[in-house]
Design a protein that fits this description.
The structure is a single chain. Helices cover 68% and strands 2% of the residues. It has helices at 11-33, 39-60, 65-68, 100-108, 130-142, 161-173, 178-194, 196-201, 208-222, 227-242, 247-251, 256-266, 269-282, 286-294, 298-307, 310-323, 327-335, 338-347, 352-362, 366-374, 377-387, 391-407, 412-422, 424-431, 434-456; strands at 89-91, 97-99, 127-128. Strands 2-1-3 form a three-stranded antiparallel sheet. It is elongated and about 105 Å long. Keywords: Repeat, Transferase, Ubl conjugation pathway.
Length: 457
Amino acid sequence: MANPGVFESDPTVMAKATELKRELQRLVRAIVDDEDYSVETIDWAKEKLCALKELKLRGKRSPSLKLLETLACPEEFRCPLSKELMRDPVIVATGQTYERAFIQKWLKTGNRTCPVTQHVLSHTILTPNYLIRGMISQWCKSRGIELSDPVYHVSEEAVTESDREHFLSLLEKMSSTLSEQKQAARELRLLTKRMPSFRALFGESFDAILLLLNPLSESRLQNGIHSDLQEDVITTLLNLSIHDNNKKLVAETPTAISLLMEALRSGTIEIRTNAAAALFTLSALDSNKVLIGTSGALKPLIDLLAEGHPKAMKDVASAIFTLCMISENKARAVRDGAVRVILKKITDRMLVDELLAILAMLSSHQKAIEEMGELGAIPCLLSIIRESPCARNKENCIAILHSICLNDRTKWKEMREEENTHRTISDLAENGTSRAKRKASGILERLNRIVNIVHTS
């Protein structure tokens, strides 16, 4: 008679193996069926396969405490948070017992409630539960299990089974009643802000982000988005996009970019600011730059910049700058009115450093240069060179001026008058950055040639 397999020898191990197999099957199916599958999908499949291998190998080694913990020990010996056998049980103010390391992690992330009862803790003192500790010790001794020393530190990146269960329950509520959606959205916002592990959990499921966005998609169809719910969902999306492994996943989730664009257009200023910040974070990937640009997100970003809300401008400018690192988006930004809006803000001395950087980037686009000349950018840029103590601002200004003057010969007169009156360009050719000196010297040489031509004619 054949020996039972490792998985069949213990129901808990078998359940874990079944869960891993199911997840692996889903990932492999996604790779086989979808020609445009992502590298991350392969990585997740490898992780599940390695976990399955480890589970199999564990049973072939001599029993370790970690494996024996999966045996049917009394429920009161398991930590409600980790679902594992406790080594250092402690009691919280409500009388519930937890593994010290895991309840400390819970408290460290800002929670002040008992995870089991949900009651607010009157204090955060952790009292050793010697009774449970002794019972666990006796239970292990009777089964020949050596109880190892407690683990006093749990990584913030660690994900417990309790974390996963709570995460899934919150996602389920996002398709429930409005009150449950609001409660779940607020908690997901807080958890993804405080705990990197919750950001990572969204990457383990292909439909997690869709479930998160479900209330906004439904509200849009019903013409009734609740601003508090929208703010929590959009902010959660921002928190998720911080995690590198989520950037591609978020951007490629159907409706994600369109809902961020809608938030830019119609949300409160907090919502619009966070939506802009999310687009900025997502645009770190070149593939996302293309996707966001083709979705039409530059127009609402430029419109928000035009409104000039101090709270939103920096995030908006950062998003536009990053998106315009690819030439296709430069053309889109120019078409959507970026040059006029940016020049107006710079003239009003709003966010000059950031907006000059965008304008300098756009100056490689022919239509942008033409528009700058038509809108009278030269006096504004020259005044910044004279007034600004920032070497980078002077450099950006002279680079833009160099492009404008090379494109439009009628602008050389303004440059000559500026040089005659203030010696602005000569000063920069002597004291600017290496790039500024080069551009300023190029303008001076051109001015001298023009003067010589006038004198000899």
